[in-house]
Write a structure and sequence with these properties.
Strand content of chain A: 25-35%
Number of strands of chain A: 23
Oligomer: homodimer
Largest sheet of chain A: 7 strands, mixed
Radius of gyration of chain A: 25 Å
Shape of chain A: globular
Number of helices of chain A: 15
Distance between the termini of chain A: 26 Å
Strand order of the largest sheet of chain A: 3-7-8-14-11-10-9
CATH superfamily of the largest domain in chain A: Bira Bifunctional Protein, Domain 2
Structural class of chain A: alpha+beta
Helix content of chain A: 25-40%
CATH architecture of the largest domain in chain A: 2-Layer Sandwich
CATH topology of the largest domain in chain A: BirA Bifunctional Protein, domain 2
Largest interface: A-B, 53 and 52 residues
């Protein structure tokens, strides 16, 4: 399709232009990786977070708010966690004109702050499970080059959920719930995803096992959009999160955590957008329908009244509608709302007013259609219903096109040449083979298939028995 | 009233107990002035912020999100602003294992971050007015002892609005709008307030003039709960926020800013609470009605079904209702919801079920009443409608009791002795008199009457002609 030419060919440039032109972000704040969220971006991002928070509330998670600053001794309690983040954290050691008595970390994530509180809150099995979440900013000194919404130093919004359980089985069940919540969220956006089990060397610092969601970006790279971690007792042993069991003995609790961020919006923009700008699904569009009256001296009052009547009608029927009465030309308004990806534009001019019709333009197809007023509500309902399915179908088919399968390292270049950017490969699990694959291909082993490998295939490198079906892709 | 004995006599202790027992905050995080917001506190605070944000949206303010970290050179641009905050800011100067190239301030407020962006966004009169706001955390090293929700080092949530205008008149008009928004907000909470013009020496760093809302706390001190500042061109000249006027010439813009914080919740708790815990107005209560089924072996199923029917009925009628089916005794449930200040409790036992009645208990009066089922909806409507008016009347009458008027410094101790904690006094405006008053009385001149002083009174100290009607009170 023509409308994808720029997006596909020069994705980086296209992406930055869309962020600016649609009023999502302004990147000119004089501190690298720290963005200014403009009105429109803030609204869409907030809508995404409302979807996520509602899913978390429905599955028994409680919203809380924990401090941003964490004393060094607390942050350093779990040594693996500390080592995992120490190159990336911002430190506070002055306040006013004095040195602080302890060094403080600006949270890169909140395990240590929250788990200290868990150690005070968890007393007995009756307190469990405990499930909390918060939506905040976190800070990481990204050493790779920053990319807005993808690799920021101030990550906002960052949604992190943390749970505590009495048994490993309950923790494992919670992992499934966390995965289910994220699947549901991605489906509403609607984004196709690849869900993998993370290889050991990619685990969140301190985690026992982890699962990662990836979305495919137009440049063929994959983006992490949600990780779910089973922490086992690693943190509970360090933070002394213990509880009295039914039998009166005490044990360390079992924990999970999972997180989401502004990368959800990066994916929505990159996956659904086109050369005209954003394309938003109904679930997060700040308004579903925009009405643009096309006014000339002749009949202006009648056209405006007709447009107002349509605006009232749609609002009565429960649609979010915006009547654009700004002093701009119709062309300027079309451009403005197209850039912003509003699902449906209604054009109302003299002809429409006289014929009691409306011109309906769908954003994601750019198709125009004139419909009689009495069919308007049904037409809009149908168009909105079709939109999310169309977006999902389109994105799924693009993802499918990019997915391939190879059995030998030697076949990788050929597959990549054919546009296969996510490769399913048989893998023995050994570090030597991992290193060789990654060196030879400029791709990474991003994770393993969730299904057990029963095909008795042989490792793409060493030809020993494959233990995993691995995915190979370039990452951000 | 008996229920106010603890609150009045030992307010500090009562306040901390309520915060803990009602599940608002946990103050045990090992960093002074940084609180953990628990589920219930987060919900109420969020409800207050939704009220405020809706009022801001309705008056044309756009929500945005600006970075937390501000480079030192940006923060220091306006010298008065810098001096006003330099003793209170947290500094970042390490990231990972390296020194940062510039020192970074953690925002104590966002003028400097936002006004840098304004200088990029404002080009012509057509861009004005510009009105933005954000709801974030800000950080100040409070040097006085911290007090949760009143004097925190992490202030969350902090809602700050910033506006830009073409003329001083428009900025002055915006000040009135800001004041109106805060008046409306306080009325919905519903909190009586004292609105004053701030004395020059109390101005926000960089401001031309300012207005402050105060609420009266049970210990007789007043709490700042909302300030509105006219910044004139102080910042626009430093940040170079200029625009092209209609006539083609350029001028510096005129600015205002106004802010609100978690102190709103401190006021709600302190003003409306009683010895049984929180008392919440309907506007912010997470649920209006809680239904407690009183179950014994006999008839348990019938009672529960009856309670469920009532729950459904209330939800159908648009009330927020919670059916408490936890495995606790009715007494434990009563205590739980009383502490949390839910406006109405319905008790449903075997008697009520057989008689088709409901026992209604109002939280703010603790009055009980049995009503036939068919009157329930009307009874609840009436009770909820009465609640906010009752709370306001009660709080207003307490505030009125505490307000007095004196004409001579010598009369102050006597007035204070009589329980007058906010004193209206005639004041010449001179610094000497201010210092003397504050030294002699342990109170401060918190501001001047909004009405012009026409009474030709004489200064309470020097007996020269009074220029202002000032308010004297002890502050937090």
């Amino acid at each position: 399709m023509l409308v994808f030419q720029n997006k596909q060919k020069r994705f980086g440039e296209w992406y930055r232009e869309v962020l600016l032109d649609a009023g999502v972000l302004d990147q000119r704040f004089p501190l690298k990786g720290c963005n200014v969220w403009k009105e429109y971006g803030t609204k869409i991002m907030q809508n995404i977070m409302v979807l996520l928070e509602n899913l978390l509330e429905q599955t028994g998670h409680s919203k809380m708010h924990f401090p941003l600053l964490i004393p060094e001794n607390l942050f350093g309690k779990e040594s693996q966690h500390l080592r995992g983040f120490e190159d990336q954290v911002f430190w506070v050691n002055r306040a006013g004109k004095r040195k602080t008595s302890r060094k403080l970390v600006i949270r890169p994530t909140s395990e240590t702050a929250i788990y200290y509180m868990f150690s005070l809150w968890v007393r007995s099995h009756a307190d469990l499970p405990m499930k909390v979440y918060q939506t905040v900013s976190v800070f990481r000194l990204e050493t790779k080059s920053t990319k807005p919404l993808i690799r920021d130093r101030e990550m906002w919004p960052f949604n992190e959920a943390h749970t505590v359980h009495a048994t490993p089985e309950e923790a494992e069940k919670q992992i499934e719930i966390g995965i289910q919540v994220y699947k549901e969220l991605l489906t509403r956006l609607p984004l196709p995803y690849l869900l993998v089990k993370k290889p050991e060397w990619e685990l969140f610092p301190g985690a026992l096992s982890a699962y990662e969601f990836y979305t495919l970006m137009p440049d063929g790279k994959v983006l992490e959009t949600g990780s779910v971690n089973n922490l086992g007792q690693a943190f509970s042993k360090v933070f002394n999160i213990t509880f009295e069991k039914y039998d009166g003995t005490r044990d360390y609790a079992h924990q999970t955590c999972y997180g989401q961020s502004e990368r959800l919006l990066a994916s929505v923009i990159a996956v659904h957008g086109d050369d005209h700008g954003l394309v938003l699904p109904t679930s997060i569009a700040p308004t579903s329908v925009v009405i643009v009256p096309i006014l000339y001296a002749k009949g202006a009052e009648e056209v405006l009244n007709y447009a107002r009547m349509i605006d009232r009608l749609l609002k009565e029927k429960g649609f979010t509608a915006t009547l654009d009465q700004r002093e701009l030309t119709p062309g300027e308004k079309f451009y403005y709302w197209e850039k912003r990806g509003i699902p449906i534009r209604l054009e109302v001019g003299l002809l429409e007013t006289e014929h009691r019709t409306v011109t309906i333009v769908q954003r994601h197809t750019l198709q125009r259609k004139e419909a009689p007023l009495e069919d308007l509500v049904r037409e809009i309902e149908e168009a909105l219903n079709a939109l999310d399915q169309d977006l999902l179908t389109r994105a799924e088919s693009l993802m499918k096109e990019d997915m391939g399968s190879v059995s030998n390292l030697a076949d990788v270049p050929d597959a990549v040449e054919k546009g296969k950017t996510i490769l399913e490969v048989p893998f023995c699990g050994e570090n030597n083979c991992k290193l060789l694959v990654e060196e030879e291909t400029d791709m990474e082993i991003i994770g393993f298939s969730m299904e057990r490998n029963t095909a008795r295939r042989r490792c793409l490198v060493c030809v020993k028995e494959a233990k995993e079906t691995a995915y190979l892709a370039a990452t951000y």
